[in-house]
Amino acid sequence: MPPPCPCTREGAVQSRPAGIGAARLTGLAINEGDEPAIGEGSPFSLNATLCRRDNFKVQRVVVSILLLVLSTGVAPIVAPQSGPYKPVSDRERESYRRASRTIYPTDILEQPDKYHDSLIVWAALVDSAQDVQAPSGVAVFLFAGHRYFDWIEDRGPRGERFFLSPRGEGTFLLALPVANMLEASKARQYYRAKTMIVAYGYARVVERSGTRLVQLLVTYVQPYPQTVYRQDVLDYGRRGEPIKVLRPP
Question: Which pTM does this prediction carry?
C-alpha cells in the first residue's frame, strides 16, 4: 500500500457528485463539497455482490489452477488463494457496495444520459497529471487508461495482488480538488504515471480539443503502487468474455 498521500492523507478524495454547483476549469467540471476522506483500514467480508459473478469466479479459479501448473509443473491439491477485491477503508467499502462494475467507458460515450445518475467504479492506470488553477479553484486532472478488472485479488509469487487485463476501453479523466498549487504539485508526484487507481464517481461526456472524452466526477479514489499489479498474466474483457493466459505469473 502506498504511504499516506500528501494531499489527501490516505489518497481518498470524497466530494459531492459534480453537476450541481460544480466549478468549471478549462471547460471541465471540478468536484466541490466535503473535505477529503480519511481512509480507514477494515476487513472485507463476502456479500451478495459476489453471488452475481459466481460463473466468472469459477472461470478464474480454473485459470488460477492452470497458472500454477504452468509455473510449477505440479497440479495443486487445493485451489490457489484468490478472493474478492478488499476495499481499503469503510468509506470505500460503502462506495464499492453501491457502485456498478458492469458499466464501462464505451457505454458512457454511447448512452451518457442513461447512466447519468449511476455510481460507477473503474480500475485504471494513470497516464499523466496536469494541475489547473483558476479563480474558482485548483485541481489536478488525471488522465487514466481504463483497464478491465475482474475484481479478484490474487497472490502472485512477487506479492502481486491484481492481475489486470492489458486491455481496456480508452482514456478517461478525473479531477482531484486540492487546496493550492503546492498541494497540486505533491498530488502530481503521488499519482505518477503507471500508478493503479480504483476510482468511484459519476461519468459525464466532455469535449477536449474537439475530442469526446469520458470524465469521472470523483467521489472516491484509491491509489496502488506498481508493485501490486501485473497486466501480462491474463488477458480478458468484460464479464463473461473468454480469459486468455498470457504467461505464468
Answer: 0.72
